[in-house]
Design brief:
The protein is of the alpha/beta class. The protein contains nine helices and eight strands. The relative contact order is 0.15. It binds zinc ion (ZN) (2 copies).
Length: 252
């Protein structure tokens, strides 16, 4: 069975279909879905979904885009929500210098604060990085003692070198629909990830895989990601390995 380790069923575009999507999981061979929060409201919606539907799990956190809205109140709320057994991680958190929607210094501060929060709550972290691997690795290195509960570099787009350093810090590496794109140039990185650190995700409604480009992405398309990675990883059963890894990381 498959596990989608990063899905925004809590996004306004998918939320109305949360029940339909859940109904379709079994037929698509999907056992569990981690619904990732990206701000206060989406984190609350992720937890609501995890309470209502057996296959949905939640993560709570503030995306780098919204770093400048982060407050102590948010962290207190995340602390409260993460006491629920199906709230399995803090995230997505990180740095995004591609869009630069929050000031970089604030992004760094809020990323570091949420790493600390996750450690205090004994939760793994879900990390979003775009065009900021240097600064993100520096923060992760400086926080290495706080990574005891692990984490995942979601939608990984870095080099093999960055991947190796992240793995050295105890992190998992997740790939999604981008692997099916014609211009995806990182198959060598996918090949180099240690089997015991590889994860699958959709990041739906974004990152829709080929041949469904132009439509909203959904967890049910995750099989396309598995198939593509399986072409490059003849050494392992991608579905079996990534399912086991997701269960280990998120304790689900
Ligand atoms: Zn992300
Ligand atoms: Zn995401």
């Amino acid at each position: 069975m498959l596990i989608d380790t990063h899905a925004h069923v809590n996004d306004e575009r998918l939320m109305p279909f949360a029940a339909d999507i859940h109904d379709g999981l079994k037929d698509a061979g999907i056992e569990k879905v981690v619904v990732a929060g990206y701000d206060r409201a989406s984190s609350e919606r992720a937890v609501l979904l995890s309470r209502e539907y057996p296959a949905y799990y939640a993560s709570v956190g503030i995306h780098p885009h919204d770093s400048d809205s982060a407050s102590a109140d948010d962290y207190a709320l995340f602390g409260k929500l993460s006491s629920e057994s199906k709230c399995v991680a803090i995230g997505e958190i990180g740095l995004d210098y591609y869009y630069d929607l929050s000031e970089r210094e604030i992004q760094k501060k809020v990323f570091a604060e949420q790493i600390e929060l996750a450690y205090s709550l004994k939760k793994p972290i879900i990390i979003h990085v775009r065009d900021a691997y240097g600064d993100a690795l520096k923060i992760l290195r400086d926080s290495s003692k706080l990574l005891a509960y692990g984490g995942v570099m979601h939608c990984f787009g870095g080099s093999a070198e960055v991947m190796r350093e992240a793995v050295g810090l105890g992190l998992y590496i997740a790939f999604g629909g981008a692997v099916t794109f014609k211009n995806f140039a990182k198959s060598d990185v996918v090949r180099a990830v240690p089997a015991e650190r590889l994860l699958l995700e959709t990041d739906c409604p974004y990152m829709t895989p080929v041949p469904f480009r132009g439509k909203d992405n959904r967890p049910e398309y995750i099989g396309l990601v598995r198939d593509k990675i399986q072409e490059w990883r003849q050494d392992i059963d991608v579905e079996e390995v990534t399912c086991k890894n997701a269960k280990t990381l998120f304790n689900i």
